[in-house]
# Entry
Amino acid sequence: MSSRDTYHHGDLRRAVLTAALDVIRTEGPGALSLRDLARRAGVSHAAPAHHFKDRTGLLTAIATEGHDLLTAALSESTDLRDAGVRYVRFAVAHPAHFQVMFRPDLLRPDDPHLMAAKARSYGQLRAGVAALPGDRTTDPDLVGIAAWSAAHGFATLLLTHNLDRALGGRGPEDAFRALAGALFDSGA
# Structure
């Protein structure tokens, strides 16, 4: 590698993010090292710090990107059940983002970009709750927590392979639709 290759990279920020997502997907967030990511991206060991400062900054950037991707996924939902299905679909499509997004111990919770991205994704969930008919919205915060808990718990169990046997060959989206129907259509 020439010194020019070491100091010039087309999109170093994206290259480091992509490498970090690969590490998280296969080894978990605890395995992240800026030095290792620099090696994977083919840049000097100090180059990633230019964009992220440190490991926490990198994980915060991943969480921010994850919330933006989740917002996009939820923005096209037709109702709260569909939002839950899209949440599960997002977790399956972006497991590394999902592992990091809801781990405040790994992030800078006061980062303004993260705070704004979280507000947008939570706003999508609140919109689904607000669209529920009748007395279901008497305490929209609790209904939102219940809906989020159901989707997040299902997605987490799915990603950790705790539902493999329980689903019995049923697709996760169909299983979640049935679960959401049992929880929310029955008045539970």
Notes: The mean pLDDT is 87.
